[in-house]
Write a structure and sequence with these properties.
globular, single chain, eight-stranded antiparallel β-barrel, about 15% helix
């Protein structure tokens, strides 16, 4: 009987060890996952020197993971790259990222340069861009510089993306 009790106890310990070992597996998640999707957006363009609202616009954008860079996302409209975000990090109530300096041709063929600025507040810190978990929105801020109507101009651009 004592051998049976010992065998039963050892079996019980072996079963518990298996259960607790299988529960300790951790899954890794991609910090970019909450950002991926289709968004409607509203953009505001302010004169960088006066702060005056000069223009605004709306549209639809798709946010996706960069194909080869695990720490980058892309914002596209109509299949065309709008801009990229890098250095993506989790925050207590969202996800934050930088908008690096990048140059491209706009719809009119004008070469423009954009660069993120720390203007979006998440918690008590300012960032170039942030995804707010509670509202499923992304807010971005950057400067936009180019030759417009023959005049070199810089605009402060803010865009709020709302997940559809």
């Amino acid at each position: 009987m004592k051998k049976f009790s010992n065998l039963l106890l050892l079996s019980f310990i072996a079963i518990l060890s298996t259960i607790f070992t299988s529960c300790s597996k951790t899954e890794t998640t991609d910090v970019r996952d909450p950002l991926v999707g289709t968004y409607s957006y509203k953009a505001n363009y302010y004169d960088n020197s006066t702060g005056e609202l000069k223009d605004n616009g709306t549209g639809t954008a798709i946010v996706s993971k960069h194909a080869t860079d695990a720490n980058s996302i892309e914002f596209k409209e109509g299949g065309e790259l709008m801009f990229s975000g890098v250095k993506i990090q989790s925050a207590s109530n969202g996800v934050v990222f930088d908008i690096p300096s990048q140059s491209f041709k706009d719809k009119e063929g004008v070469t423009v340069t954009m660069a993120g600025i720390q203007n979006i507040t998440l918690g008590t810190t300012k960032y170039h861009a942030a995804y707010f978990t509670a509202t499923s929105t992304i807010q971005t801020a950057f400067t936009f510089t180019g030759q417009f109507a023959g005049v070199q101009s810089t605009f402060l651009v803010t865009i709020e993306f709302t997940k559809k």
